[in-house]
Design a protein that fits this description.
The protein is α+β, with helices and mostly antiparallel strands. The protein is built from 13 helices and 10 strands.
Length: 343
Amino acid sequence: MNNAITLSAWELNETDFDAGASPEQQLRFALQYAVLAPSNHNTQPWRFIVDGPTVQVCADRTRALPVVDPFDRELLISCGAALLNLRVALSHFGLSYAITVFPSESDPDIVAQLRVSRDGHLDKALATLFVALTTRVTTRTPFVDEPVAPRLQWDLTAACDAEGAIATCVEAETARHAIAQLIAEADHAQFADARFRRELASWIHSRRRDDGMPAYGAAVGGLLNIAAPLVTSVVRVFDVGAGAPATHQRLVEGSPLFVGISTERDDPEAWLATGQALERMLLLAASRGLTASYLNQPIEVTTLRETLRSLLNVDATPQLLLRMGRGPQVDHSPRRPLSDVID
């Protein structure tokens, strides 16, 4: 499979939507947008079961990351992001719906059931984010040294709040330095674990693949060599290529805004809500010219999670940490064919 094919998932034409088609056909069309959601290591850990006007959003545990995500917390966050994308697409096409999260006590892999229904919910605010579904991208490059306007920060936090999560924006340089140092500490701890290095390397491969992370020049060379010395956090964040050694100072300089997403609870329902909050915020950011990438190391290293909570000054459990700003246009990550994820 070549690069043109794996990236074709992003080249959707909304005019192909058939308003007269059956609910099942309309759901299948909308799911093309659901699979554009972000996921850790681009594992795309979801699958969908369509039955008439109903779709079950399911966690694909075969694509789990047992070392970095032993409780499938980030896996469920990814499924939540896909669910939000589906809601955006349905809202844009004027299809109301009803959702039940974790509808089956006997099958926890069914994280949500959505049914298209005339008397369901139609979120006009979500519909405004539709264009951003195909423009949102994860940017692993330094951002422009330009502050994010306070009003936009407020809008980003409101987007998370609408989905039941708490966003904390950190722009003060001193606070960003403290968080960057924590990221470096977490990165050191992770790369000291050979299991982590092997798991990360297994998801970095050629652009000919339709999942995982494409190799990024010289920087990834160190990641692929699981016997290599420890690398710095910015190598994971920035596509540094053959550039000079990276430090946490560069992370601060290239990240005008850090954003933490937290929840009052720390359970599967909260993780699913986190994913929906994340994607709602990312789509809003994309519609305003911002992009983001992830700095989840202090959350993945559980002994540092409480320290991050203190740095974010939030009375809740941190679930995600991102950097946001204005960056250059970069390629999208590949996606698996829709036929691979729909039952």
